[in-house]
Amino acid sequence: MSDWIKVKGWIEKGYGVASGQAQNPRFPQGTIEMQKPFFRGRGLDLSAYFPGTINLSIAPCKYKIKQAKYTFKQVKWSPNDPAEDFSFFDCQIVLEVDRVVNGLIYYPHPETKPEHFQPPDILEIIAPFISNLEYENELVIAVNSQQINIEY
């Protein structure tokens, strides 16, 4: 566990595009659901994960990318938008002292992303469905220090 850094954050409301809650006609079932087959084709199966993201603000901290577990370049997942680059990083959601859920930090590279940008303190997390999470809840995650660094 020495490679893991814990950080506390708060769940914030996102754009609702990843999960489809925004009811954007371009992404009717949500962007994550639309992207899953493209990631699976490149070696990352997200079928065990909820098709949406947990937007975790770690302010006043920020994060710095070191080495992604997965990086996929030029993923053309939407017929109406340009190809994008994506990276994924290991994380663990600490729900209780003895209950940890493995997840991934989902990082669409801002330089290739056409819209819906995130502030520098927001981590987008993909995980299996977790009940009882609500906006403004405190959440502790652990990130792999070989992949991503937390700047306090």
Automatic annotation (TrEMBL):
It comes from the Bacteria. This is Riboflavin kinase. The lineage of its organism: Bacteria, Bacillati, Cyanobacteriota, Cyanophyceae, Gomontiellales.
